[in-house]
Structure formats: C-alpha cells, structure tokens
Design brief:
The complex is a heterodimer of chains A (256) and B (205).
Chain A lengths: L2 E8 L2 E7 L13 E6 L2 E5 L7 H11 L5 E5 L5 H4 L2 H7 L4 E5 L16 E4 L4 E5 L2 E7 L9 E5 L4 E3 L20 H15 L3 H12 L5 E3 L6 E2 L1 H12 L5 H4 L2 H6 L1
Helix pairs in contact in A: 5-6
Chain B lengths: L5 H43 L5 H54 L4 H55 L5 H33 L1
Helix pairs in contact in B: 1-2, 1-4, 2-3, 3-4
The chains are: A alpha/beta (256), B mainly alpha (205).
C-alpha cells in the first residue's frame, strides 16, 4: 500500500507525499503524488493513473480529508500523471485541474469537461491556494512539449515532474536520496532518452539554480534534499541529451 | 467529455460516506488520546488530594484503562476503514469501466455477445467487491458498537469521578475541573462514534 508522509509542516501549510507502493503491478511505474495544503484548501500534483486510483485515494484518505482537495496540478498530459482524473471528478465534480493550455482538448479524453480545466500559459504564473500563491515554473520539453513544475517559496520545495525522476531497483528505492552518485545512475538513462532538448535543460537549470530549494520532488523515484538539489542541477546541466534518435543508438543504449 | 448519470452519483455518495466515517474515526482517535491524558492528569491531581481523593484516584485509573482500550479499538477501526476506502475506490473504478462497456453495448449489435460476456465478468467482480464491502461494513458496525459500550462505561466512571471529586477536600475544585473535562471528552467520543454507527446503518438500508 502507498503511504502518506509529511515533508513539510508549518501551521496549516503542509507538503505530504503519497509514495512507495511495493504491491503495485510490476508493469506500472511507481509514482509520487504530492499534496500541498494551506488553510482549508489542498492541491494534488500529478494524481496518477486510473489503475492506481484506489491505492492513492485510500492512502490520502487515511491521513487527510480528501474533500479539502480543490485543485489538481498536472505537470503534463501523460497517463501515469493524470489518467485517474475521471475518478477524482466522480468524488468531487467541482475539482479544477491546472495544466498547460496546449493540452486543453487532449486531457478531456481522460474525463472532465470545459469547466474542469484551467489552461496555463507558456510563461507560467501564480496559482492561488488557500490564501498563498505557488509559482508555476515553465519546463517545456522536459519531457513534454507543454510541461510545468510547481515551486512553493514558503516551503522551499520544487515539484519537478519527470525532471529528477529515477527508476532504482527495489532495494535502493528510498524516499530520499542518500547517496547521490549511486542514485543518479538510475536517473541517467531516463533523462538521456526522455529529455529531448539541451536548450530546454539549460533554460530549466538556470531557473532552478536561482531558486531557494530545500527539496526537489520528482514524480518518480527519490526526493533530493539539501546539497543534493544543486548537485542534481549541475549534473543535469552537464548531461548530454538530444534528439530521441540519438538516444536510440545502440552504443548509447549500452551506456544507459 | 464528462459523463454524468445516476450511477456516478451513487458511486460518489459511497466514497463520500466512507470518507466521512474515516474522518469521524480520526476525530475519535484524537479525543481518545485527550481522555488518556486527562485521566493521567486526574491521577496526578488525586495524589495531591491525599487520602481524601482515593476514590477519585481509583475512578481516574479505571478511566485511563478504558481510554487505552478505546485507542486500541480505534486503531482496529482505522485499519478497517482504510481497507474499505480502498474497496470502495476499486469498485468505483470497475463500475466506471462497466459504464463504458454498457454504452458500447447499447450501440453495437455485432459484438453484443462478446460485450455481454465482458459485462457479465465485470458484474461478477463488482458483486464480489460489493460483498466484501458489506462484510467490512458489518465488521465496522460491530467494532463501533463495542467501542460505544466502552464509552458507556467511561461515562459512568466519569460521573463517579465527578462525585468522588466532591470529597476531595481542598483539591475538590481542581478534581472537579479534571472530572468535567474527562466527562466532556468521553461524551464527544460517544457522540462521534454514534454518528459513525448511524452512518453505517443508513448505508445498509
């Protein structure tokens, strides 16, 4: 079963993660869902796929009132990110979902209607949550062409979607990165293949390097904290990514 | 586009009901912890009351025992509710798939046979989950009733503590205050558990 764990708590302001499901079907990539709460409102980032809705919902409800979740933030349009949307909407039809506006007519294939989606402009912006604001950080082409991250200046946490994602073996699948060099080996192949543009990587690294970040929280794999955040940014800036074709060359496959 | 029908509303109501029960139980866990602390405080206060507060000390020790058992009972209820939320959510997902196949079946005669087969299997699965859920609801009802009986004992003891507080000599006002706090907390636990049980009974009808 997945479990709700607290990452940050100060008054009514909280970050929690629903992570680690050892019982999930092996065909499914494990995902981290983050719950950001302030005052009486809460936002869920990348709530996950249709198949894992029962475990995500029950993990959330075990430690938090799901009726307080008013917003969903979808970093991009992938099925492991947001295909459970129809079931969340059954529970609360008034839920609103933020996503890049380029996915406005694609996401309703998962559920919802014209009132469900709030399209985010390419340049990002601010999202209100119970009286505070969260920053929408552009991360286009990392890996989706309409892609956003979410920064919380109060908690100093950056939700980074697929950036920082890793697929470690079960014995190394920890909630937090404890050995950067060991961990990053499990992130390398994924980033080389999925991050299609060096320009996009550098643009993101420049933005992230000037933010005050205590935790960098990806949608898959362990959370980076403290000095490992800047280690990751430096590592990512140096990484050779490129076209998908380049990444499929046999010698690169071996390297990954 | 979103498909809204009665099925959706019923499924959503099921999930809402179990979430409300879960929230109620979380509230009880917090209050049971308060009772435990208040009972401990009562025991300490009674020591200051000396021989005059012996009766009060006995009542508050018993109350502490009850609140500990209540917290244990709530742990069991929390686990049960958590698995029920999972069962309801799984059933919701299966029923939603069923809705989609029914809509296809309505418009496709050529594959009607195969679709009936699929729908039959889905119905079996939904029924199986429904039966599991029914069993979990009955377990939950039984456990909530047991916990309520503990609360009844707790209320009786808190009344005794209130009476004993009056014999506490100089400490009587302090003991009375603690006894009232205990009674109030147990009353609140009983009220919430009563609500949980009523909700379960309503779901059964």
């Amino acid at each position: 079963m997945k479990k709700l764990e607290t990452l940050f708590s100060e008054g009514t302001h909280q970050w929690q993660v629903i992570a680690r499901d050892p019982e999930r079907a092996s065909a499914l990539i494990d995902t981290n869902e983050y719950l950001i709460a302030h005052g009486n409102e809460a936002m869920l980032t990348d709530p996950g796929g249709l198949e894992i809705f029962p475990v995500v919902f029950s993990a959330l409800a075990a430690g938090f009132d799901p009726r307080r979740v008013k917003w969903i933030f979808a970093s991009h349009q992938d099925p492991d990110v947001i295909s459970s949307l129809s079931l969340w909407l059954e529970f609360n039809p008034a839920l609103r979902c933020y996503a890049s506006r380029i996915w406005g007519s694609f996401l309703p294939h998962y559920g919802g209607d014209e009132t469900t989606f709030i399209g985010l402009p390419d340049e990002g912006g601010k999202l209100p949550l119970g009286g505070i604001e969260l920053d929408v950080v552009p991360a286009h082409y990392l890996h989706s062409s309409g892609n956003f991250h979410l920064y919380d200046a109060k908690a100093r946490i950056l939700f980074s979607g697929d950036v920082g994602a890793a697929l470690p073996p079960p014995e190394e699948d920890e909630l937090f990165v404890t050995d950067f060099d060991r961990h990053i080996r499990h992130a390398e192949g994924f980033h080389r293949r999925f991050m299609g543009s060096k320009a996009a990587v550098l643009d993101w690294c420049e933005r992230a390097a000037v933010m005050d970040i205590d935790m960098l929280c990806p949608q898959h794999g362990s959370i980076y904290q403290g000095a490992d955040v800047m280690r990751f940014i430096n590592w990512f800036a140096e990484l050779e990514v490129g076209s998908g074709l380049w990444a499929t060359l046999p010698e690169m496959k071996k390297a990954a | 586009m979103g498909h809204k029908n009665n099925g959706t509303a019923v499924r959503s109501a099921d999930l809402h009901a179990i979430v409300r029960i879960g929230e109620g139980i979380r509230g009880v866990v917090d209050t049971a912890r308060e009772v435990n602390l208040a009972a401990l405080n009562a025991m300490l206060s009674s020591r200051r009351g000396g021989d005059n507060a012996v009766g009060f000390r006995v009542a508050s020790a018993e109350l502490r025992g009850i609140s500990t058992r209540l917290m244990e009972a709530m742990q069991g209820l929390t686990l049960l509710v958590s698995s029920m939320v999972n069962e309801v959510a799984q059933r919701q997902r299966k029923q939603r798939n069923q809705d989609y196949f029914r809509r296809v079946q309505d418009s496709q005669d050529r594959v009607g046979g195969r679709l009936s087969e699929i729908l039959g299997k889905q119905e079996e699965e939904v029924d199986r989950l429904g039966m599991l859920l029914g069993q979990s609801r009955r377990d939950l009802h039984m456990k909530a009733s047991r916990a309520l009986r503990l609360c009844d004992q707790g209320l009786t003891l808190s009344r005794s503590a209130l009476i004993e507080a009056a014999y506490g000599g100089e400490s009587a006002p302090a003991l009375k205050q603690v006894a009232e706090q205990l009674a109030q907390s147990i009353h609140s636990v009983a009220e919430t558990l009563g609500g949980v049980r009523a909700e379960l009974e309503e779901a059964r009808t």
